[in-house]
Amino acid sequence: MKRTITLFLLLALIVIPVRGIEPNEVKPVKNVILMIPDGTSLATVSIARWLNWYQNPDQPKLNIDPYLSGTILTHSSNAPIGDSAPTTSCFMTGVPSLSGYASTYPVADPANDIYPMDPERAYQPLTTVLEAAKILYNKATGLVFTCEFPHATPADCAAHSYNRGKYDWIAPQMVHNDLKVIIGGGVSLLSEDCESYLTGNGYSIYKNDIQGMRTDTNEKMWALFGNREMDYDNDRNPDEQPSLEEMTRKAIEKLSKDENGFFLMVEGSKVDWAAHGNDPVGMATDFLAFDRACGAALEFARQNGETAVVIVPDHGNSGISLGVNHCKGYDRLSKDQLFHQFSKFKLTADGFARKVNSLPASEVQNIFIEYAGFELTPEELNALYNCKEYKNSPIPEEERSSEGVEASLYSGSLTSFMAKLITSKTCFGFTTGGHTGEEVFLASYHPKGGPLTGFNTNIELNEYLCALFGMQGKLEELNAANFARHTDVFDGYKYEIVRPKDEKGFPQLVVKGKKNQLTISPFTNIITKGKKGNEEIRLNSVIVYVDKNDTFYLPTSLVEHLK
Q1: Is a pLDDT exceeding 70 seen at residue 270?
Q2: Spatial contact of 274 and 352, defined as CB atoms under 8 Å apart
Q3: pTM above 0.90, yes or no
């Protein structure tokens, strides 16, 4: 018997994460702001801090520095290294998930799952902290980001999909989840149907209209900039695209007027994008832009007295280091030697690529003198001319090759060449162009003295976020109530899944009772009642269809409309 108990305790230690703070010890607040610098390793923060200090000698610290309080372990359900979809998904739902899954229960992988997963729940949508705050307490909700709006991290907050790339599934969910404020990228991804729904429900909509966003006084607003993602902060035209700080201030201004309080997620999206491209300028400058947004959020929280702020990356990226073996004697270089040239770059790698493609080859050296503070060497100029994507090269495209080009600089991609060129002027190094699995930093502010501290898992971070609104244990209750299988909800009733006539359409679920009929369309919060569909039922959650198991996930309460 003792042996059995001992074995049980050992298994419990394996599958149950150790708590950094007990949820019942957390004092609830009115507002919560979650800030995520996507793909930000700790070395990225260090490089950004040194750059900021070098450029501003009176600013040795970042806005986040007084609130750094611990680390967070992020991972997928079956792997220590995760992408943005399952990592932020776990922050929002409390359930680790698979690569590419946005707030959706994973398919079990018993041989590799870090915690045991229930195979019966595969593909079930999972209620997020944002959705729960809206449903349970009628709190205002908002998202701010610099990627396109259906991208992984924003999607994790207000949509559900086993494939983060299914924008046609994700975008309408984000629209129909009735968030009060959306500010970010993705003008081309807002469909006519989605825009019609928003305008019909009292939203202001602005597309590449910075003045419209700035002057809007409506409580509900969508403001989108850029065809898809927004520009890097270093490259953006401030007359056309707002900074992340301005977007954050605007969202807080609107959401804070709600008497019930609010939940806001702010993402510094493109730190991750720059890390994937091994572009240290994009990484450092977009993180500094994110830190300024943190400053705005923390300023509001300190003044407001009812707002908690949690700042945490979703994962690391690129394995960037300050110091690299090919840079001899780097550990003895001065601050000026390490950061003078780096501080001269006024564009990211993407910005340099666009700039040289917009002007004739005769202007290349002037571009680098103005935006980088140096001229290209003959070897560097030759490498540029041999880039396949360089539109203005004097070398015909069919004659370009790697022969005679310095190996460390050759690239068919113009942006990649620029990233390599920038990095060659530094003592920074990269181990990968992908995600990394180290713990990420945690910064936490609580107006009543209850910040999250120490080492915590991604599950425990979710528990803390729930505790901030006093809704411990509520997510699972909402999962059962709002995301039940249609086969269970309508057991005993006649129902049919009507297939679309073309590939672009979605299937509909038609359910017939003795007196009533329901027609259910996925990825919306609208259901029609009656054979003619002349009555509309509006839900406080979205309907999700999953083709993998041909299942609609919907509220159990819908059966009442058939009686």
Answers
A1: yes
A2: no
A3: yes
